[in-house]
């Protein structure tokens, strides 16, 4: 935590502020260790304050030993009053993406008459969070391990006639039994033509012989997340499915080869997209190649055609090309990876297979 705080403080001068209010829950947790659901951090070059309510005072002291804990009662204004009086803050940054207009107005009304300017900032902590330390990679690895084990357990029991919804519940239950905090997101179970919808919510459709089954799941562990997709036919796949599956598998492989420190996220996306385009399915891959995974299931870096992110060693992200054909179904193959100096280390261990024999 100390080194995170140190690296964060180095960003303050460049951002042109004397201090920053951190309000986004995962950013608060990342910098302080505090896991409570309410509070703000006030961080400057020589102070680190965690302002939170009565419910969390004891927990805050235990979880965030590098922070001075201030008790507030809802509004942050009394703490801001102390801050301005004691610590001579003139330019105070805040997270523009995490503060409501109402709260911004409340702070602004108080600070305006006192010569303090509120400076909107974006993505300052997120920028640090994109590169993981080994402790974080360890937690993500554990979350991914539970995800792999869950998929294996559920597939070994898969029977015709089970509905998408029932399968999704088996997945959630298995994750919890294997030690997950819970699912990272509502499991996606799409069967038959439903697999053409990348984020299909599980419904009452029953799995039938020869169906495409697309399962996209992730477990949460220790605050961190994981993300995995496998697609296969339950029974005998036809030539069309095998062709589409192989193109997606190749796009996944090509992207893994292209990802290295210094590469632009857009160029890695383009490498995978080219494989799909060359096979004639360019129009059917309508989402980005991947996203960072950490304290939040979708975070930086973003891998897509318009991304301006650069990849760096220590980043954890997904590689998830897909082809979706309305009325027919779809295939997505998603792995979680961590970028090393030499290239990609794949965290997801689930085997990739186009068909599950019945
Ligand atoms: Zn996913
Ligand atoms: Zn994903």
Description:
The chain is of the alpha+beta class and 358 residues long. The protein has two domains: 2-129, Creatinase/prolidase N-terminal domain (Creatine Amidinohydrolase, Chain A, domain 1, 3-Layer(aba) Sandwich); 134-356, Creatinase/methionine aminopeptidase superfamily (Creatine Amidinohydrolase, Alpha-Beta Complex), CATH 3.90.230.10. Helix content is 36%, strand content 23%. The strands form six sheets. A six-stranded mixed beta sheet has the order 4-3-2-1-5-6, sandwiched between helices. It has a four-stranded mixed beta sheet with strand order 8-9-11-19, covered by helices on one side. A three-stranded antiparallel beta sheet has the order 14-17-18, with helices on one face. A hairpin with a 2-residue loop joins strand 17 and strand 18 (343-346). Helix 7 (134-156) packs across helix 8 and helix 9 (239-258) packs antiparallel against helix 10 (265-278). The longest helix is centred in the middle third of the chain and has 23 residues, at 134-156. It is elongated and about 75 Å long. The relative contact order is 0.11. One zinc ion (ZN) is lined by residues 216, 227, 229, 334.
Brief account:
This protein is an alpha+beta fold and 358 residues long.
Head-to-tail CA distance between termini: 50 Å
Fraction of residues in helix: 25-40%
CATH topology of the largest domain: Creatine Amidinohydrolase
Number of domains: 2
In order across it, which strands form the biggest sheet?
4-3-2-1-5-6
Output the CATH class name of the largest domain: Alpha Beta
List segments where confidence is low: pLDDT < 50 over at least 5 consecutive residues.
none
Secondary-structure-derived class: alpha+beta
Average pLDDT metric = 96
CA-based shape? elongated
What's the CATH H-level superfamily name of the largest domain? Creatinase/methionine aminopeptidase superfamily
Alpha carbon gyration radius? 23 Å
Quickly give the CATH architecture of the largest domain.
Alpha-Beta Complex
State the order of secondary-structure elements, H for helix, E for strand: HEHEEHEHEHEHHHEEEEEHHEEEEEEEE
- Major β-sheet, in short? 6 strands, mixed
Number of helices: 10
